[in-house]
Structure formats: C-alpha cells, structure tokens
Amino acid sequence: MASDEAPLTDAPKPRVRGEGTAAAAASRGGLLSALRDRHLGLVLLAPSALTFLMLLVFPLGYGIYTSFLQRHVLEPEGIWVGLDNYAWLLGNADFWRSLLISSFWAGATVGLQIILGTAVALLLHQPFKGRSVVRGLVLFPYMMPVVSVVLIWMLLYNALYGVVNWLLVQAGIIGTPIAWLSQPASAFWAVVFVGVWKYFPFVVVIVLARLQVISQDLYEAARIDGASAWARFVDITLPQLRDVLLVVALLRTIFMFNNFEIVFLLTGGGPLQATMTLPIMVYEQAFGVYELGRGSAIAVVMFVILIAVMSVYFTFLRKEND
Amino acid sequence: MAGVHIERLHKEFHSTGSSAVHALDDLTLDIADGEFISLVGPSGCGKSTALRIIAGLETPTSGRILFDGRDITALEPRDRNIAMVFQSYALYPHMSVRQNLEYGLKKRGVPSAERARAVASIAAMLQIEPMLDRRPRQLSGGQRQRVALGRALIRDPEVFLLDEPLSNLDAKLRVHMRAELGALHQKLKTTMIYVTHDQLEAMTLSDRIVVMNHGVMQQVGTPEEIYSRPANRFVAEFIGTPSMNMIEGEISTEGDTAHFAAPGLHLKLPKAPAFRGRATLGIRPEDIALVEPEAPGAILAQVTVSELAGAERYHFVTMGASPVILRTPATTMLRPGESIALALNPQHLHLFAGVGEDAAAMR
Amino acid sequence: MLRALRIYSAVMLLLIIVAFPLYWMALTSFKPQTEVFRTPPTFLPETWTLRHYAELFWLTDFGLLFLNSLKVCLLSTGLALIVGSLGAYALARFRVPGKESYGRLVLIAYMFPGALLIIPLMLLFRQLGLTNSHLGLSLAYLTFSVPFVMWVMRDFFASVPVDLEEAALIDGATRLGALWDVVLPQAVPGLIATGIFAFLFAWNEYLFALILISDEGLRTLPPGMMRFVSTTDTNWGLIMAASTLATLPMAIAFGLVQRYLVTGLGAGGVKG
Known about the structure:
The complex is a heterotrimer. By secondary structure, chain A is mainly α. Chain A has 14 helices and 2 strands, in the order ααββαααααααααααα. Chain A has one domain (84-321): MetI-like (MetI-like fold, Orthogonal Bundle), CATH 1.10.3720. Chain A is 72% helix and 1% strand. In chain A, a hairpin with an 8-residue loop joins β1 and β2 (79-80). The two termini of chain B are 37 Å apart. The radius of gyration of chain B is 25 Å and the shape is elongated. Chain C is an all-alpha fold. Chain C contains 12 helices and no strands. Chain C is globular and about 70 Å long. The chains are: A mainly alpha, B alpha+beta, C mainly alpha. Chains in contact: A-B, A-C, B-C. Chains A and C meet through α1, α2, α5, α6 and α7 of A and α1, α4, α5, α6 and α7 of C.
C-alpha cells in the first residue's frame, strides 16, 4: 500500500442531479418531509397556474365559445348559431385568400430571416475588431418598439421624399419614385422586407450561440484531412446547424404567421387587401365591423394551425431527446 | 457528539416505467461516539445514499436512524445538528468566506459577537484568516476545502458527514489534506462519517471501514481486518492497489492434503478447507516472491511487461494460464519474455468458495 | 489581408442595413421641418434643431404616454418576475405530478398570438372592469411575460448546483430560506436579463394597448405614437423624435447590461 496515485478502482461518481434530490424524494418516499416538499412545489406553482388559468385557458375557452355565437352591436350578448361562423368562413373567398397571404408572408419572411440570419451569424463568428459592439448593434431592430420601426420605414418608403426612392432613382434602378406601401404589387414585398429587417437578429443570436459550441477539434481534424474552407462549411458547420435551424424555422414560422403589428401598422392589410393576413382579418372582423363571433372563428382556426405546428415541434424535440 | 445507530435502512428508487432499484438494501450499522468510519465502494454502491439519508437530504423507504438513542429519521436536516462537507464544497459563491462560515450560526440565531468569536477561532485553527473577506472563487482548491471544513466545524455538530471531500483536489494536495483531516479528527474526536470511492483514503483515515456494493454492505471492520481478511472476493479486489490477484480453479482433496488446481497451476494448500469444488484463489501482489527455479514448490511463470512505480515495480506475468501481478522493489529488473519462478506466501492465501464477485471467503 | 478586407466589407454592409434606418430616425428628429422634405435629402442636418423634442413635450401628450407606459410595464414586469420565477423554481427543483405537461403548456402559452386572445380578453376585462385600467393592461401582458420568465428561469434555476441548497438546509435553512439566501442571489443575472426582456416586450406591445385602453389619459406609448401620424399632420421630425425617445429604454438597457441580455436571448429563444 505505497501508492498515492488516483485509485484504479473507479472514477469519481457521476452526479445526476437534474431533479434535485429532495424533489426526487417527494416522488419516492412516503414520509412527512417528502409530502411537505411536494406541497411546497405546488404552492410555488400556484400563482403561475392561476395566471395561465385566468388569462390563457379561460379566455381561450371563452374565445372558442364566442366563435359559436353571432355577436355584434345588435346582439351584444350573442346568440348561439352553432357552426354558422365556420360555414361563413369556409365559404368566404377572403378567408382563403388571407390564409394564403399569411402563409406566403410567413414563408417569405422566415426563409429570408434564416438565410440572412445564418449568414450574419457566420460573419459575426469570425474574429474581427469591434465584433462585440457589432453583435450588440445587430440586436437593435429586434428589440426596438414595433411602432418606432414602422414609423421609420414609413418615412424611408415615402413616395415623395423617402430616402429609399431617392437612392434607387440615383442608382438608376427605378426611373421614378414608387409608392411602395400603396401599390398592391410592391406592398407585400415592402412589408416582407421590414419583417425580415426587424426579426432576423433572432436567428443571428440562436445560430451564433450554436456556432460557439461546435468543437474546434472538428475543424482542425478536417483541416488535417485536407478539407477546403467550403468543404469544412458544408461538411461540419451545416450539419451541426441543421437541428437548430429547424427549431428556429419552426418558432419563427409560428411567430411570423401570428404577427399582427408590422403588417397592420404599415398597410392596414391593404392596398386592396394585398397584405390582409389572418390576424388582421381577426382584427377587422372583431373591431372593424364588430363581428366578434366571426373574428373568434378565425382566431380558433389560427389556434388549430398553431397547435399543429407546435406538435411537429414537440415531436422533433422528443426525437432529439431520444 | 453522538453515536449513530442505523437500523435496517432501505432505499428504493423508482425510475419511470421500470421496477424499483435498491439503492440501499437493509443497512444496519452502529457507529460509536467519536468514531471515524468510512463508507467505501464503487459508484452507485449506495454509500452516498446512506450518507444523504443520515443528513436528512433523502428520505429512506424504510428503516430508522438514531443519534444517541433519539430517533431522528423524520427530522429535517436543520433539526439534526449535523454538518456536512460536500464533494463540490458547495460554498455560497456570493458570500465572503466569513459569511460562508457564519451562515449556519446566523440561521440558528447566534448573536453577532459570538459569531465573530467562533469565526476567528475556526479561521485560526484552519489558517484561513487572511482569506476571510475573499469570495470562494478567489481561493485555491485547497483553501476552498478548508473553508468547507470550517463551515462544518464551526457549529460543533454532533455528527460530521463528509461526502468525497478530497476528490476534487489534485493528487499532492489530496495527500496533504488527508493527513490534516486525520489530525483534525484526533483533536476533535467528533463522530465522522466519511464517504469515498478511494479505498486508500478509507484505509489511512478510518477507525473502521464499511465496504459496500450494489446497495449491500459487504464487510465492516478495521482497515487491517478488511485488508488482511476480506469477507468476499469483491472486498478483496476492491481494497488494495494493485488489486489482489484472482485465480479461478478447483479445490480437491487427496487424503489429508488439499490441492488447488487451475490451468497450468497446481498448488498444495497449507491446511484443508471445508470446501471442495469450484473456488477462487486470491493472493496480493506483495505476497508473491521471486525464487530459484529449483526451490521446492516453485511455480514457473513468464514476464509480460514491467512497470516502474516509484520505489517499487509491478510485473505483469503469466503464471500457468493466469495473469498475475507481482510487486517487487524497484531494483528488481525483469525482461519481457523472461521465464521466472514464483512462490506464493502460504500464510497469505485467500480462498473464496465459488467464482464471481460474491464468492465468500473460506476461513 | 484579403480575408480581413472581405470580413470588414461584409461588416460594413451589415452595419448599413441595420444601422442606417436607425441613423435616419435620429437624424430626421434633429432636422428642421423644411429640411425633412427636401430633395435631395441631407445625410447630415444643415441646421441642427431640438425643436421637435421641445414640441413633443409642450404640444403633445408624449410625456403622459411615456409615463403611462413606464407604469404599466414596470408593474407587469414585477408581477411576471415574481409569479414566473416561483413557478420556474418549482419546475426546476420539485417533482410535482404533471410537471412535464405543465412545462409544455408554458411553451404553448409563450407562443400564443395576441390576435387569438384579444377578443375574449377584451370581453372578460370589460365585465371585470379591467378595461381602461393600467392594472388590466399589466395583467394582459402577463400572458406572454409569465411564460417567458418561466421558460428562461427554469433553466437558470436548474443550473444552480443542488449542493448549495443542500448545504444551506444542513446549515439550518428552511426550503424557502435556502431559495432566498442561496438560490436567488445566484439567479440575479438571469432575473435581470429576463426582467429586461419582459419589460421590453410590454413596452413594445401594440394590440392589447390599443384595444384595452381607450381613455386618452390612460393611453400608453405605442398606440399613442401611431396617432401622431394623423394628429400632427405627419410632422416627421416630431414623429421621429418620439420614435427615438421610445427606443431609449432599450438603448439604456443595452448600454448597462448587454452581457446579460445576450445570456437571456441565448437561454430561451425569445418571443417576437
């Protein structure tokens, strides 16, 4: 027994402590202290549970109930009309058109956000002077009030004295200034551009966080194997980013599909309903023409879509965890 | 200070969907007042679970714990008058060393003048006075260790629990702190329950050692007993570095003499055991001697490789068909491939009935 | 060298895309009205003026809107931090029945679109007398800030070593005492980050503020600012001054605690 070396018998025991041991005891033991722990857990959860119940679950139920009512100025309490609102919805060309526009809007903004966001994340992953300042600055559009963003872009897009028009005319790209937000042909893409500008930083942050945890060993191994910079990007970076991009795409799709403010404040759904997304249609029905039942029916359809996308997300997460 | 009586302690874990896992199976143990006792075993053997149940951090499925005859099984940790040193030290990162030390006293309503006195005396004892106003992250590993000890000592607990307290230190510091810990116990004479996976720590520090495996107590005894008379093959292999050599074979008798036979090995046993059949022969590396090939009873072997470990040398040899390690002074040089002759010290043969780690020692 | 040049030109392009609109906002707020409408536009004001800022406070109700917003957002953030972190701590440390489904519910709640909730919330709040009330609007903001705080703080609490709490329990603390003395101080960076985000979400929110408050004296900044477009005859200098000031809380938050913010953003992924 003369050796002071680390013992050969085993390594330090691994500690799996995700749940907390007292918590674990609560589910296992049956004794007093364990019971007290469980109760304390429930007590701490109670305020948030109450919040969800009062402000989410109950309103959601009430919203679904309202979607079965005809409820407007003449019927402030509402009368039961069963599925009438849904029948109206399904037979309404405007609804299908809005669904399509919403999908295009979500698809276009998310696609561009992912591309731009990933490119910027890759750029900000490179070492250069002033990188941390730029990393901070990139978040600005995302964190700014939507209203400020909208007002800025209204000014920039202005047909008479907007600087966008002036620059494009100077560059010879367009001949005369365009009223970007008031022509059906340009309004959609003008709004998409603002949506991308405001929300791409979200993608930057998430992708950057993922890039920072890719092991440098992988790149060094590939370099030793003689892989070019492009090959390293395609064979290492992209596969490592695949999962996080999928998650981000899902989250962004949900958020953009449900986004009300950008489009509503820039165009109000116009011109000629060219940018009438579902959330704006809910708003128009409920607070424009005060058809609360019909508005609720559209909102319920949106909720069903949300749940469908979320279940894809959860399935994906579960596959990840396995 | 208190003696600890542990009575038929059980702990089952239910992981979802599967059957219960016995983390601790029927542990009964009496720990004398002022004793230093170590719980030792591999990962998952139940030693930490036992300690955490004594601390009150875990609730047993059944069984009782008594401190000096008082049943404390249902008490909260704060009502047990125990102190604990954690493997990670668990120093509060946002508090200074002083605040760390006096937190326990504060929680017990000790007035501030008295707290200051206690901190001063503990800090003097552990030689951490210059660090009292620093934060834990500004301390070295050894200093953190001392603070963790100090935080436990300051309350003068009845029972002192230590959960792998040295395993985060580097090898050199570990030996040093081990010695300090031993000296501390000599001085304080508080009951200490020490959990470690390092059999060497257990051997050097303890009055008694409890060896555990799969939630079951394998043997309890003084370090000498555990080392020289292991109760079963598991204990024999777990205690001692390098491990005891194990050769599986068969015991047969011819008249008065018993033999142990394994492939390429035939050994006359000094006294006849009460057992015949499949058995395991254990011999520690230091109980094998190099002898002349002509010596009576010499066993031929071939050297595979030799390793220098400071003052001594370990030789990996093949004896018959069995791989065996022998330990010699560093000056003994053997070449790989060399043929040698060995003798096993007949006084130190360990025989285990049957094969496998449960094989019990024959006495 | 070439590589550095490529990186810097890409960074410049990025800065132009991100910062130019912000620059234009600030710039316009300092230009006299006549210069705002000039073609070709001036990229630096020929005449600097603070007139729009003065007008904002003397001629419009901007100050009141700002204070109203501040009040609602602080109240809402405080409530969300308390309610959310208690729940997050319970989810991180206790095993309560149905915990996993509850965690999932939190995530769904966090994705809930405002357009979905606004109709029933408006109807219910009207019944309860919570419309035209700053408390009511603060409560409405809890629909997204409580799930957000819970989602982020759950990971934060889970990352605080359990050993610390156990050490406190042995040192004589109760469970709640250990939470207060040991866990919360560790979670302060997380609380700051989530608090700032919760505040900014509320600060930036438009739809609930528009629908739930119609009283001029109680109106908050986002709907109030949108009204400037019509009520001020599109006085862009004034509107850009308002936009600049509305962005101020965010800029201040960035200046103070950028490190925490990135932590918060990275930790949970964020609503938007």
